[in-house]
Amino acid sequence: MKKWFVMGFFILLCGVACNSAMRDGVRLNADMPNTVKLPNGALVYNLSGMWHAVTKSSCGKTFNGTIAITQEGDLVMGSLQNGNYPVETYEMIRGTLKGAEIAEIKFNTRAGFIRSDGENLNSGKEMNISTELPTDNIRWDTTLTKNKIEIRDQRKIK
User: Fold this and answer.
1) Of all helices (H) and strands (E), which one includes residue 10?
2) How far apart (Å, rounded) are the C-alpha atoms in residues 116 and 22?
């Protein structure tokens, strides 16, 4: 019985350690590209720039466009530059970063800003945002990919 207890405790301990490592994901350090050091010394990904966004809804519709993300410290805001999103304002994303993770993210939908789940991927060059519209039981899954070529002024592009 004691042997089984020790084995069970060991398995539980390994499970907790693995779960913790998976949750924390990437640990940022000052040598890494694409990071910003905050005044408190913490590091976050630098998400500023132009992002290509594709959103697929659970009802079969697809939306896409370009979103310009600006960042002040750990706060990010994204505004729609072009695309076919059915929103009333150009602001699309509001969020907060904590290290390599998106601590909080809200995505603009036809119902307004909805708290969503978000994750950084590929060293901060990709993001996934999942948004659930509770009133309509509709889910939006958005993939954002950082553009390699920064577009300075959208008005000059035809």
Assistant:
1) helix 2-24
2) 20
Reported as a single tens digit per residue, the pLDDT across 9-37 is 445 444 444 443 333 467 888 778 888 88
- The pTM assigned to this predicted structure is 0.76
In 10 A of CB 76, how many CB atoms? 23
CA distances from 86 to 66, 92, 150 (A): 14, 11, 25
Q: Kindly write down the DSSP assignment for every residue of 28-87, as one continuous string.
A: --TTSSSEEE-TTS-EEE---EEEEEEEEETTS-EEEEEEEEEEETTEEEEEEEEE----
Other CB atoms within 10 Å distance of the CB of residue 90: 14
End-to-end Cα distance, the chain: 75
Per-residue pLDDT of 87-97, as tens digits, reads: 878 899 999 99
Integer Cα distance of 71 and 93 in angstroms: 11
Tell me how far apart the 2 most distant CA atoms of the chain are, in Å: 75
